[in-house]
Amino acid sequence: MLKEKAGIIAGQIWNALNGTEGLTVKQIKKATKLVDKDLYLGFGWLLREDKVSIKEIENDLFVALK
User: In CATH, what number is assigned to the domain containing residue 60?
Assistant: First the structure.
């Protein structure tokens, strides 16, 4: 059940990032309205699938689709 939830959350994050050059975690959180634990669950899924890159820029995490 948690695996299915992670996939759904990853899809929400993917949709928020699609068509952008990337967003900060704060921007993604605002766009998806996800709580922190769900947001990072989705990031883990996308990182494991090698679908996103995450960089730290000026003390913010910046996420972009690969």
Answer: 1.10.10.10
